[in-house]
Structure formats: C-alpha cells, structure tokens
Amino acid sequence: MEATASAAAASVFDHLEQAPEDPILGITVAYNKDPHPGKVNLGVGAYRTEEGKPLILNVVRRAEERLLADRSKNKEYLPITGLADFNKRSAMLILGSDSPAVVEKRLVTAQCLSGTGSLRVGAEFLARHYGVKLVFLPTPTWGNHFKVFMNAGLAVKTYRYYDNKTRGLDYEGMLEDIGAAPSGSVILLHACAHNPTGVDPTPQQWEGIRQAIRNRGHLPFFDSAYQGFASGSLDKDALAVRTFVADGGECFIAQSFAKNMGLYGERVGALSIVSKSSGVATRVESQLKLVIRPMYSNPPIHGASIVALVLGDGDLFSEWTVELKGMADRIISMRHKLYDALRARGTPGDWTHILKQIGMFSFTGLNKEQVQFMTREYRIYMTLDGRISMAGLSLKTVPLLADAIHAAVTGAKA
Amino acid sequence: MSTAAAPASSVPAGARSGWWEAVQPAARDPILGVTEAFLADSDPKKVNVGVGAYRNDEGKPVVLECVRKAEQIIAGKQNMEYLPMGGLVKFNDLSVKLAYGDTAPVLEEKRVAAVQTLSGTGACRLFADFQKRFKPDSRIYIPVPTWANHHNIWRDARVEAHTFRYYKPSTRGLDFEGLMEDLKKAPEGSFVLLHACAHNPTGVDPTADQWKEMSQLFKSNGLFPFFDMAYQGFASGDTVRDAQAIRIFMEDGHQLACAQSFAKNMGLYGQRVGCLSVVCDNSQQAVNVKSQLQQIARPMYSNPPLHGAQIVTTVLSDPELKEQWYKEVKVMADRIIGMREALKSNLEKLGSSLPWKHITEQIGMFCYSGLTEDQVDRLTKEFHIYMTRNGRISMAGVTTGNVEYLANAIHEVTK
Questions:
Q1: Which of A96, A297, A300, B208 is 20 to 30 Å apart from B126, CA to CA?
Q2: Domain that holds residue A338
C-alpha cells in the first residue's frame, strides 16, 4: 500500500524493457542454470584445463604473492593513462622492443579495461579527432565490436572475411571490399586467431592486405586478444601488427591480457596509437586523457601490476612463455582429437577446418537449428553462430561433442 | 633519424603526413594535473593539498589493515574469471545495504537495480549514459560548484546540463534560498545531482531539515534525485549518519539513484570499486533496469574488475573485518577533523583578520578556503603548496608536520 500521503509516482524508467541476454555471456548464464551433470560449456572464450577448470598461471600467482608481500605498495590512483611501466612493456610485447615506433617514440600507450576498454577508448578518440567516422568490421566478428564502435559514435560497415564454402578466408572479397571502402576508413583487423572463425590470413595474404589498406589511405585498428595464445609463439602471433608498423604508417592497437595471462576478470589491456612523429604522440596522449577521465577516471591497478611484474622479470617472463605454449598446445591437441573423433564416427562433411583454424575458437559450420539441437539433447552450450571454444574441450568431453555434432549433422533423433 | 630500410611497399608518396597533425594539446586535468606538478617539484618543503586522497599524519598513503587482511584471505583462492557484466552480485548486495540500510524495504522488496562500476566516476558515467538512452530529452542539474569531472561526464553522455546555486561565497556556506529557487525552475522530469555528504569541493552540506525541504520539493515538482556518495563514513566517521540524506529521500518514497565509491572510505582508490543503484517500482522493473545498465557497460568495458570488489565483499561480509573497517574509517575522519581545528587555530594565532570558521564548519575531505586564483598561484610559486585553483584544500594532505607552514603561507598571501 502507499507508504506516504502522496501517491508513489511511477518510476521514470517504467517504459524500459528487459534487455536480451548478451549472446556470448548469456550462454554461460544458461549453462550455469542447467542442473544436468554432463553439461559442457563451449561458449565464452575462457581457457579451461583438461579437468575443465579455470587456470591461474603460475607466474601470475607468484607475481601476486610478491605484490601482496610488498607492504610498501599502496593503492593510490594510477595516472589517467595507467601504469607507465605496464604501458611500456605491453607496447614492446606487441611491437617488439626494436620496433621503429618504440625507438623513435612515435607511440602512445594507455592502460585500459582489457580489450573492450582499449577498443572503446580508441573508438571515442577517433570519433572526436579523426576525419572519417567510419569503421569496417570483418564478417563475422566478435559480437561486441559493433556496439563498441557505434556507442562511441562511429558508423559501422563490414568487409567480407569468412568464406562459408571453404570455411577459410575470402581473400579476394576482403581485398575488394577494402579497396571499395571510402579512403581513410578505419579497418578493424584481428591480429591473430580471428574470433569467432579461427581463420587467419597467411603471411603472404597479410602483405596483400597491408598494401590494400595503405594504398587507400585507410587506418588499421588491430584487436590483439590472443598474442602467444594462437600459435604458442608471442613473436609469431605479432607478425601482422609488426609488418604494418614496419612500413612507417600509423595504426591503433588494442591489446588484451585476459586470455594470454589468464587475467580475465582483472580487466588488463592497453591501447597503443602509433603516429608519424613523437610531437604528435604527446598531443594525442593529452586528448586520450579527456576521453578516459569522464569514463572511469583512471584504470584499475591490480591486474596491470601483475603484468608489469611478469613482463619485467626475466625468469617470470620465460616461465610465462612456457605456460602460454602449454595452453596453446593443449588447444591444438583438442583440435586433433575432435577431428579424429568425427572421422571415426564417419560424420558426413569435411572437418579439416577444425585443424586449419587457429586459436581458441572453431567455427564449426553448424547452423542455428543444429546448435539448438545440441544444447537441448546433448547439453552442449555454445553460441548460435556455430562457434565452439576449443579451450573448453577435454579428452573426456571430446567424445560427447563428437556424438552431438554427428547427431545434429545426420539429423538423428535424440 | 630513422635508418630503417624502405619496405617493399610503404605509404604512397603524396599521402598526408599523418592523421593526427591537427590534434591540439588538451588542457591538463585541473585536479590530477596538480599532483603531476607536485611530483615534479624538488623543493623539500612542498605540500600537496591537491587531490582528494587520504594521507596519514606522516603524509603517507594508507592501506587499511582490514583491507590487508581481506587481501590475505583472497590470496591464492579465487580464480580470475570474468565477472558478470553487472559485476560481483554479493558485492552489489553489500554495497546497497551500506547505502540504504540493511533492512531497507526497497531491498527486501528487491526493487533496487545495482551494478558494480569503475568507482564513482564509472557509476556516474553509467547513469548518465542510461539517462541519455531512456530519457533523452531530460536535463541534469549540477550544483555550483561541483567536482569538475561531473560536467565532463554528463557532457560526454550528451545530456543537457544546467546548474543550480549551491555555495554562497559571502557566508562560505550553503545558498539554500538560491538552491530552492533554481530547482523550482527545473522542468518536471529533470534529474538533479546531489552530493550525499561531504560536498566536493566545498565541504558544505545541507542540514537534515534542509534535506527534508528539498525532498518535498522534488516530490511536488517531479524531480529525480541522483546521489553521488563518495565519502560515506569518511565525512562524520559514521556510515549511517553520512547516508542520512539518502535515507530522508527514501522515507519520502522517492525513486532515486546512487553512485557509491569505495575509493576513499576503504582506501581502494586505484582498484576502482564502486556501485550504481537505481530504485525502481518493483522487482521486475529492477531486473529490466539492471539488464539495460549492463547493455551500456558491455561495449564500454564488458565487465568490471574483480580484485577490488572481492576486497570490499570480504570486508563487509565478515563481522570482525567490518567492525575493524568502521574503526579505521572513523580514525581517518577524526584525523581530518583534528586538522581542520589545527589549521583554524593556527590562522587565528597568526592574527589573521579574515574569518576562518568555515574551516571547521565544512565537512569531509575538502575545505573551500575562499582563496582566489592569484592567491593559490602565489602559494604554489612562493611556498610550493599545491592545491586546485578554486582554492580547494584537501585536508587529508594536512599533517601536524605541515599545518603551521600551511597556515603561515595562507596568512602571507591573504593579509
């Protein structure tokens, strides 16, 4: 009943509807609700061990212990652009310490909230300071890319990327669309381990893409969320980015340490802007601060401190590369196991794309109905676009997944 | 310069020299820029009373003991998986209990949509974006003066901003008549930004009776109260007392929103821990509102950072740690109150003819000294004392070691 004399006015937000679940994060929500013991979560791209457990890297544990033991460390605000040591080392990680951009100080790096935050801050900066307010995203791409750029005020278009028929790269289509884009467009590129398809250009194809982009005067914006995680080699996974930077042109790079350092929830990332001259870099940094300050003031300290420690300590860094390769290798082995399991069942279709694709995800080629069937009948949780997180597979669950795929493809009843 | 060999195909000749030539250097942040300048100063007598971060009597930052204990408990146990978009659920529950009261009816009825945010800034920005999305034609009313970043936040959210009178320079107190006059003119459906306690930068808070009058005005005129609460516990030393404005509005049945920060009261500044809560008609609406807030967060940062929220959750859910926290917050608040008294009495001892009672009447971290920009500049140039140019002194930076020096310098530039 009304608590006070005047009638309680309806909320000013009465007209709101409930927003749909995020297509990716919503999968985990649904998975968690499912009481069935045999359920398998192949939705969100978070690494799992063979036992299906999340993994905290040893180097991260050791870095945390050191931080905890150091009573001289405080929790003061970081500068707006974050921890300087972290920024420096992050940039060197993706660019290489001998990169011309680093050596010539043509680089601005700001610590941001993981990959998402780095993309968003970069997008906001572009919306304010860049002449062409148009970004091209590959088809398909990580679902969240669209809103990140749109909410920042940029128009979004797409370029052809994934070829349904070959389950590989539509290289010609990609070059055509890049060539047709208005000069100066922002082109979003997945640095490696394309999400959701796992299809990456070859080095030769990257060179063709680079030329097409530079010839049109476009601005490349790299999303690097899997460095080291894709092939197991940090340098190999940075090849595309470094080739672009080597040609002297400008680019944006969004880095995430969510996957390769297992720091998902700590939101550690960096935005790097490579510009033509160092004078420009200082002005750019000052403008980045104006984007960041009214968004969250300054970034969180914990995750960045861990990364800075690991990257800055020779032993921890070496150990990290070993752990990283371990994760990448386990995923590669799961690809082989799944492929073998499907062949063993005689599942119709060519499944070699599972072996050719790279990184955490495989674009299976399954359609929405097939996915829904697999979720309903086999308790396989995955996104409706047919993407599976290979990192969520184990020796135990591969047979289950293979059974589910087989049933879905052959139209078998449960 | 560069001696790199020309690559096979470099940027074509005739291409413009670079994208960013036209980018102008942005003005330094008026608050955070002060600390930058302070750090660059090598004078041993330098004093930083700029940014609002607590310092102990040695002038050092403090990590609370309850926080250290919480970190020990957390260490080695948790995984680091993504939080949900709306953050740690337990954290949100504990935050809103702190703000509204453990047994608040709106909580028992599940009418509060709450999401974890990037401290107070993130909470304000999320709300501003939400306001723009669902009430695009509405205005925000911002007090004069206010924390400078408030204007940036609502501007970046593209919400039409207006101001209302708040601080009265002649009394160095609240301009209550001006405030009521200005808010009476605000159109129905306007949103009003209120500092729940320890107004930043002035330290001037309404009395309980004034809050009650404002609450009645908001009701009769259909104004939406948005509380920025960055100093709960830190202002008076009592978390319940510091939330009284919110409790008063809640009693009157308002559906308000609140941005909470744990930067100061738990000393978690750099961890970026905060909470945005919106009181709704009913539990379904709270679900709707939360889901829409999450839609705004997802393309901004996906989900909020884990560590700080775990610390707060650990402290607030452990009765012993919570008690310890209450004590530690009171120590901080009391030290500041003590420094206010010391600064005032030092100025009086020096024979300053100006009125200084506002130093002890104002509350919270800041003292709005009344110093002019020129006087502030002299303090910096001649005495290496750093504060924001609006004359705001962060009392947390005042110590028994520097209060005399500070009083002396202020007296010098004002006599």
A1: B208
A2: 22-55+329-409
Please list the ranges in chain B whose pLDDT falls under 70: 1-23
pLDDT of residue B79: 85
Domain boundary (A251, A281, A312) is at A312
Are B340 and B246 part of one and the same domain? Answer: no
Q: Is B228 a catalytic residue?
A: yes
Where b means 16+ CB within 10 Å and e means fewer, B111-138 reads bbbbbbbbbbbbbbbbbbbbbbeebeeb
Are residues B92 and B53 located together in one domain of the fold? Answer: no
> A-contacting residues of B 137-156, CB under 8 Å?
149, 152-153, 155-156
ipTM of this complex: 0.91
Q: What are phi and psi of B92, to 5 degrees?
A: -60, -45
Residue A62 lies in a domain: no
B93 interfaces chain A, CB cutoff of 8 Å:
no
Cβ pair B301:A296 closer than 8 A: yes
> Could you say which of A281, A312, A343 is where a domain stops?
A312
- Can the peptide bond before residue A220 be classed as cis, meaning omega within 30 degrees of 0? no
H or E element, residue A93: helix A84-95
Instruction: Give the tens place of pLDDT for each residue, B93-104.
Output: 999 999 999 999
CB-based contact (8 Å) between B75 and chain A? yes
Number of folded domains that form chain B: 2
List, for residues A384-406, the tens digit of each pLDDT value.
Answer: 999 999 988 999 999 999 999 99
Distance CA A134, CA A186 (A): 6
Do B367 and B406 lie in a common domain?
Answer: yes
How does pLDDT run across A195-221, given as a tens digit for each residue? 999 999 999 999 999 999 999 999 999
Tens-place pLDDT, residues A320-372: 999 999 999 999 999 999 999 999 999 999 999 999 999 999 999 999 999 99
Q: Is residue B71 part of a domain?
A: no
Could you confirm whether B325 is annotated as catalytic? Answer: no
In which domain, by residue range, is B141 found? 83-317
